[in-house]
Amino acid sequence: MATIEVDTRLLRRLMGLELDKERLEELLFNFKGEVEGWGDxxxxxxxxxxxxxxxxxxxxxxxxxxxxELELGLPPYLGSHPxxxxxxxxxxxxxxxxxxxxxxSYYVWGLKLDKASVRDIIGFQERLHASLSRGRxxxxxxxxxxxRLKSLSLVxxxxxxxxxxxxxxxxxxxxxxxxxxxxxxxGREYAHLLAGASAYPILSTEEGEVLSMPPILNSNLxxxxxxxxxxxxxxxxxxxxxxxxxxxxxxxxxxxYGASLTHLRVENARWTPTARGVRTHTLDVAQVRGVLGLxxxxxxxxxxxxxxxxxxxxxxxxxxxxxxxLYRVDVLHPVDLVEDVAMMYGYNNIKPELPDHFSVGxxxxxxxxxxxARSSLSTLGFVEVNSLTLVSSRLLAQLGFTGWVGVxxxxxxxxxxxxxxxxxxLLEFVGRNQTKPKPLRVFEVGQVGQVVGGVYTQxxxxxxxxxxxxxxxxxxxxxxxxxxxxxxxxxxxxxCEAALLTRGRRATIVVxxxxxxLVGEVSPEVLRALGIDYPVAVFELTVYTxxxxxxxxx
Amino acid sequence: MVIQxxxxxxxxxxxxxxxxxxxxxxxxxxxxxxxxxxxxxxAVETLAGYGLVERRSVTRQVAELxxxxxxxxxxxxxxxxxxxxxxxELPLDEARVRSGLGEEDFRAAVAWGVKRGLFxxxxxxxxxxxxxxxxxxxxxxxxxxxxxxxxxxxxxPKSREVGVLRERGIITVRSVSEVYVExxxxxxxxxxEIQRRVSVLTHRDLVSGAYRELVLPEYxxxxxxxxxxxxxxxxxxxxxxxxxxxxxxxxxxxxYGSYVEREFWNFDAxxxxxxxxxRDSHDSYRVSGSVELxxxxxxxxxxxxxxxxxxxxxxxxxxWGGVWxxxxxxxxxxxxxxxxxxxxxxxxxxxxxxKYFTIDHNFRRDAVDATHLxxxxxxEGIVGGEGLTLKHLFGFLESFSRRxxxxxxxxxxxxxxxxxxxxxxxxxxxxxxxxxxxxxxIFRPEVTKPLGVEHPVLAWGIGITRFAMIYYGLDDIRQxxxxxxxxxLGKEEAAMKFGHY
Lengths: 554, 501
Hints:
The complex is a heterodimer. Chain A is an alpha+beta fold. Chain A is 29% helix and 28% strand. In chain A, strand 9 and strand 10 (217-218) form a beta hairpin. Chain B is an alpha+beta fold. Chain B has 20 helices and 19 strands. A 7-stranded mixed β-sheet of chain B has the order 11-14-15-19-18-17-16, sandwiched between helices. At the A-B interface, helix 9, helix 11, helix 12, strand 17 and strand 19 of A face helix 11, strand 11, helix 15, strand 14 and helix 16 of B. Chain B: Its main location: cytoplasm.
C-alpha cells in the first residue's frame, strides 16, 4: 500500500477531461485506489503495491484514458521509435561495475513541463524509491536534463573514490567519492550500499562530465526543472530484470508529458539487454471465461485488454497473444491478465451468484466442546472473560509456569509469549475488578500453546477463578465437580507442585489417567505480589486436544 | 366492611383489646409481641387508617448516666461520708487514703460533701485538717442511685437534684417522645371481618390452602434492579459463535490450525516472495529458541513451491526470480493469518469439492491502540471445486454479508500476493458509510498447482473483529478484551444484536 497525493488539475489537463470528485473517486476505486481525503486541488489516495505504474498523475491518466476508451492499447511512445533529429545517445559499460552491475537507460525528448509536472515526476521517483526499491538496494533511479552536456556518448563504469570529482545535486562545490558519502545527506543515508567497494559506480559522458553516482546522488549539472525538454533516465541495480522494468516504467511515465522516447542500447560484454519493450503472453479465452464466469468472446476480451493499455491479437480461434509492457511488473502469469479483463469489465458489473453445489456444513469438535464448557461455567454463575493470547513472560515466570513459546521480536515486553495457561489472564482480570460486588466469579475458555520436550502442542483449556471474602478449596472443588459432570468427565486428584497455589490446598486434576489440570487456592504471597486483597481459588483443565492437518500433538 | 390486615397488625389489635382503657407505648407492645418497634409503628399506622385505634404522642424528659456517671458505683462524697459513720471524724489525709479515691475525685468529694452539708472541714488543733461528719442529705444520692438502677428515668429537669448531677457531668437529660396507643372506643375486634394480608406468598400458605384467604399487596415496579450475581458469556465470543453459525448454515465445515507455524505454510506456499515486507521482523513475530512442530514438510510440495518462486515451475508463471531459501521457509513464526490453515488443508486434501472456514487468532507486530491489537481474529473461508468463478466468490461474500445484516455491498479490485483476481468487498453502514470489510480472491495457480490442487479455490479472510465493533458500536478495539467486568455484564446478548441489526 502507498498513499499518494495527486494534483487533480494536472490530472484533468493530462486527460483533457473535466472530472468531478465522484467520477474521479469511482475511477480510482476501479484501479484499486481508495480516496482518503480531498485537499485544495489535490486528492490523497491509497493505492495497492502491485501497480507501481499508477503511482503518479501521468500513470493514472494513461490508465484512466484506457478505461474511458479515450486511448486504447499500448501507449504510442512504446510502439514507434522515431529517430531523434540530433541523433540517439549511446551508452557503453566499461568493464563490470561490481557494486551495481546492471544499468538500463531511456532518452525522452519533446517534453513540455511546468511546476506541477516536474513535481509529479520527482515525486514518482521518490515513491518508487520508498516503496519498491528496499532502500535503493533493488534499484536506483536517475533522471537527467542532458541539454547542458557536451555530448550524449555515455559511459558507465566503476571509478576509485578519489578519482571522482563532481558537484552533487543541490551542492555548490565539487567533491570526490568519499566526500559525497560523508558530506551529503543522501551520501550518509545510503553509504552502506557502497561499503567495502573499491570503485564507485559513475555514469558520465565520454568527456568525463558526471551525470550521477548511483545509487547515491545525481550531479547538479543535469538537474531537471520546468525548462527541461529532454531527459535521460538511468536505472541501476543488481538484477537485470528489475532494472529494465523500472527504467521503462520511469521513462514511460515521463513520456506521458507529450514526449517521445528511445531505449538506449547498452553496449556491454557481460549480458544481453532485453531489446523488446513488451513481453508477449498467450491467453486462453476459455481461461478468462472459466475464472470470471462471464460469457466473453475472443474479440470482447481483446477489446477489454486494449482498455487496459495492452495490445491483444488473435492467435487462433481460442487464444490471444497479449503484449504487456515491461513496466507492468505485476503480470507474472496469464491469470494476471484475467484480472485486467475483469477490472475493465467492471467488478461491479459482475453479478454475484452462488454455485449449485450442495454441501453440508458442520462445527469442528473443538468448537462444540468449547460451547459446552462455556455454557456450563456461565450457568454456574461465572462471567466469561476474553483475553489476548499473547501474555508477559515475566508474569508467567513469576507465577511459576514453564514451557511457553517466546517471541524473539516482541513489540512490547508485556506481550512477548504465547499463553501456555489461562490463569494469568484471569488473575489479572480479578485484580482489576476486586472492588466490584462480590462474589466475583470469572472464566475463560480458549486455546493455549505449550512446548513439551521441545515440541509445540496446542490445546483447548477452560479455567475459572472465584474471588470473595472467603474463596476456598472446597468451594472451587464444588464448582469443578459440577463442571466435570456437565462435560461428562470423571476425574481424580493427585499431588500438585504448582507454585502459585497454597501448599496442602492444591491438587492436580487427573482425567482418563493423565494429568489434565490443576485446582486450589492461590497462595497469599502470589495474591499480595499481584496486588489482590481478597482470597482467590482457581481451576484450569484441558478439555480438548485437537489434531491439526499434518500435525499430531502428543 | 372487610378489613385487610397483616399477621402483625392482627396481633397488635388483639394485644390492645386485652388492655382496654390503658394506652400502651409502642415500645411496650413491641416487647410484648417480640417484634421490632418499627414493625409495631407501621402496624399501628394501618390500624389507625381503618379507625380502629387512637394514638397519642407524649414527650417526657428522661435522664441517663453519662460515661462519667457510669464509671461510678456511688457518688464520691457518699464514699467519704460512709467513712465518717463509725468515727464521726477523720484527719483529711487519712480520709483520702481510706476512701481509695483518686486525687481529683477526692477533691470533688470534699467540695461537694461540704456543699451538700454532709461534713465540714475543721482546721487547727494539732494533727492538721480534719473532716467532721455533719447532717445526712440523701436526696441527690437517691436520684443518682435511681437513674443508675433503671438506666433511664423520667425526671423534672428543674429540680435541684437534677441540676446538681447535670452540673457535675454525671447525667444528661433529653426529651423523648413516645406514642401511646389504645383501642378506639366502641371497637370490638371480634366483630370485625378481617382478611389476612401478606407481603409474599409462602410455601406454607400454598400447601395449607391459606392462600384462598390471603391478599397480596400491590407491588410498584420501578426500573431500579438490585445487583444480581450472575454468570454471562462474553459478547465478543458469542458474536464469533453467531458468525460460525452463519457459515455452517451456508454449508461450510469448520477447521482449526496451529498458532505456531513455519514461514513455509504462512508465506512460501502462498507465493509471498521471500523479500516481501510482511515477512520482515518488523511485521511478523518470530518464535525464539528452537521449537519443533512435530511435522515434516512434504518434499514434493517443498520442491514445487521453491521452483515456482524461482521460475514459475510448471504453473505458467514467471516466478519471482532470484534464489529461494529453504532456511527462510523453515523459520518458525506466530502465524500472521489463518490462510496457513487453508493451505495446510489443501496440501492434505487437494481433491474434491469443499467449503471450509476457520475463525481464530492471528498475530502481527503492532502497537496496541484504538484500532490495532497484535493478536486479532480472522474469519477465513475457502471453497474449492470445478467450475467455480469470480462470480461465485462475489456470491459467497454477498450472502455472508447479508446474513450479518449488510444490505449493500460493492466490489473493489484488490491485491494480495496469493490471489488473482483479488477483491475487496465494501459494505454499506448507515452511519459509517462504505467500509472495507471482506478481502478475498481466487488462489493463484502458483499457490494451488504446487499443492496438487487442479481446480479453482475461492478464498477470503475477513477481519471479523471490525464487524463485531460495528455491531456493538465500539469505537476502540481494546473493548473486546475489556478488563472491566461491568462492561461484559452490561452488554446485550449477541443474538439480540443479530436480531435487530
